[in-house]
What we know:
This protein is α+β, with helices and mostly antiparallel strands. The protein is built from 5 helices and 5 strands.
Amino acid sequence: MTVRSILDRKGSDVVTLEPEQTLARAAQLLGARRIGAVVIVDGERRIVGILSERDIVRVIGEAGGDALGLRVDQVMTSKVTTCGEAHTVNHVMEVMTQGRFRHLPVEKDGKLAGIISIGDVVKRRLEEVQREADQIREYIATA
């Protein structure tokens, strides 16, 4: 199972923002789309950062409500770990677990090509385990 197979099923649409947008705009977008992170891109769709709900909550906890007026690029994580379409589900799970994050942008030719969430990975892995169990049951029944 690869990242490409997940994107083929879920699609490669990604909610993005420009770095100069405000945290208020980012929070509004996350709430409206019911998502946990937004990828920050430049005009050529190159990944320049990622901003999660946790990032917003952290900065509001530190600076109060005025933090919502800050620019996204002042708060985002700018050192973004990404994956490629050929990476396996197991590799992505390992990267997400080690990095302790729930969203992993997919990069192709230096540009944003999709995003994988921990939910996508777990769903795909559960489907894989169920298929393997079904194959073993079928094998045993025919032996």
